[in-house]
Amino acid sequence: MKLISFKQSFIAFGVLLTLGSCDTDEKLEVRGDGVVLESNFYRNETEAYSGLVAAYDKVGKFAGSMETAPLLFLNSASDDFYAGGGNSGDQPGLQVASNYTVSPINIPPAIWANYYQGVFRCNVMIQKLPNIPMDAAKKARFMAEVKALRAYYYFDLVRMFKNVPLILAPLTKAEVPNVLQAKPADVYLQMEKDLNDAIGDLPVTLATNEQGRFTKGAATALLGKIYLYDNKKTEAAVQLEKVNGTPGGTSSFGYKLMPTFASLWDHTNKFNSESIFEIAYSDKSNADWGNFETGNDEGNVAAQLMGMRDYSRTDAGKTAGLPDYINGWGFMVVTTDLANALKTDPRFASTIFDANAEKAAGRITFTDSYNETGYHFIKYAAVNADIKAANPFLNFAINTYIIRLADTYLLEAEALGGTGARAQALLDAVRARVGLASVPVSIPAILAERRLELAGEGHRWYDLVRTGEAATKLAFKGFVAGKNEAFPIPYSEFNNTKIVQNPGYPQ
User: Fold this and answer.
1) Which of 50, 227, 281, 431 could bond to 300 as cystine, CB 3.0-4.6 Å?
2) How crowded is the C-beta side of 476, counted as CA atoms within 13 Å?
3) Segments of the chain assigned to CATH 1.25.40.890
4) How would you classify residue 410: left for phi > 0, otherwise alpha for psi between -120 and 50, otherwise beta?
5) Residue 292 contacts by C-beta under 8 Å, 6 or more apart in sequence?
């Protein structure tokens, strides 16, 4: 038996697209030595499902890679984290995001490429599905999923790079040089159309073996979020209310805030009641350096990068019950500003580890990271018991949230203008879960709550940019207004294309 080798009939901005898989046991196999061409694929339901798996695959890059992981890149660019690591040259893509020396030459090109590979896989499915002989209900669901996925990929692209090509069908090599960028408004309209088309054919709930796929609730939440970014607040509030239901209660989709904040970060609580869209990572793929980034890597790699360097508990630390964290690579050093903001907040203990205090007390030893502050991010922290594979660095089965209910509560409160009884109840529910008293609802109060509740989950940079606060909050890092609201398009994308660079960066 031999794994199928996919050779796509289209090339996107110099990146040859290959179909990967979400798990090693889902890769297609074929007898003999044949190579299956894309033009001869998508003949039946089994092959359609493999195409769907491939379309989902790039979602996993969120925390499943190193300097190209959006979670790490966006956190590094925010006011809540320094890139950290061993030195100023460690994972350079994260360093240039952190200190705003990012340029078309040094931005990791795979960030852009991974999203577009996801888009192109969705486009192939959208083109091929109508002619595949298969169960009609499954076909409709597959179509809905790839449309929702395409919206997801474009949402990150337009927020990170702003001026992006809107490609809705597979490209031939001859078509690539003529691709133009779309207006951001047109990208938003397409995302909204895709999600509105998709929602009706998505399931409300998932079987256990389907977890991680789009549901009606996840697509509705994403649509509400996109409407808010598109300044369609009335439409956003309508969609988000469907997701949220009665604040503090169980929504019609079955979502409910977890009883404690700490329980969100118990890594065994996968796909819990608060999780709306979650990425599943695996420790079963046995990824190693020889096959990393080739489709066999399905672990949460960010967990390794975010661990403290040379962390070790002393006997006193073991007696005190401090976590047995892995020996990590020291990235995502928490800024003192975030640490101070959370210092008296009940969420501090599940978000930040005060390494300097524990070291001073003689309970741990660790090696300083670059730009060390003594505070380290622990929501997705791995412990030694999480090591299940021969290569411990690339195979952590620690899931990450893309959208969770506290996020949508606060988004709806914002969409309501930060005023009124419902907005107050939504804000109160998030605070009450951690034992905090009510504060008068307002847009500043909601945004402050988002920072504390969602710290390190990849939202902060987007929030600063969309609310116009980035220039002020990120000035200490070198953020330049009128330039750094969008990242530079990688230099590699200008080879034989009509792509125009974002303002402020060299063409």
Assistant:
1) 281
2) 9
3) 1-203+470-507
4) alpha
5) 394
| Cα–Cα dist 170/123, whole Å | 6
Residue 87 burial class via C-beta count within 10 angstroms: exposed 0-12, middle 13-18, buried 19 and up? exposed
DSSP string across 214-234: --HHHHHHHHHHHHHHTT-HH
The Cα diameter of the chain in Å comes to 68
- Phi then psi for residue 364, to 5 deg, are -145, 165
Q: In whole angstroms, what is the distance from residue 148 CA to residue 151 CA?
A: 5
Q: What is the mean pLDDT of the chain?
A: 91
What is the DSSP-derived secondary structure letter of residue 181? B
Q: How many residues does the chain have?
A: 507
Range list of H helices, 78-135: 92-99, 109-128
pLDDT band at 8 (very low <50, low <70, confident <90, very high): very low
Q: What is the distance between the alpha carbons of residues 78 and 87, in angstroms, rounded to a whole number? A: 19
Vertex 347 angle, CA 455 and 415, to 5°: 55
The number of C-alpha atoms within 13 Å of 419 and in the hemisphere containing its C-beta is: 2
Domain ranges in the chain with CATH number 1.25.40.390: 225-280+399-467
Per-residue pLDDT, averaged over 227-255, amounts to 98
Query: How is residue 436 annotated by DSSP?
Result: P
- Which residues, including other chains, have CB under 8 Å from residue 289's CB and lie 6 or more apart? 391, 394
Using CA atoms, how far residue 494 sits from 104, 105, 112, in Å, is: 10, 11, 13
Phi-psi region of 408 (alpha: psi -120 to 50; beta: other; left: phi over 0): alpha
**What is the C-alpha separation between 239 and 216, in angstroms, rounded?**
11
Contact 14/492 with Cβ under 8 angstroms?
yes
Q: What is the pLDDT of residues 312-351, one digit of tens each?
A: 999 999 999 999 999 999 999 999 999 999 999 999 999 9
CA distance readout (Å), 233 to 64, 228, 413, 417, 418: 33, 5, 10, 8, 11
Distances (CA, A) of 57 to 2, 20, 251, 280, 319: 21, 6, 29, 11, 42
Task: Specify the DSSP class assigned to residue 8.
Answer: -
Q: Residue 124 corresponds to which tokens in the numbers above?
A: 């192939």
Tokens of 272: 């819990």
In this structure, which topology does domain 1-203+470-507 adopt according to CATH?
1.25.40
For the entire predicted model, the pTM comes to 0.92
**In Å, how far are 95, 168, 305, 505 from 179, measured between CA atoms?**
31, 11, 36, 20
Name the burial class of residue 288, with classes exposed (0-12), middle (13-18) and buried (19+) by CB atoms within 10 angstroms of its CB.
middle
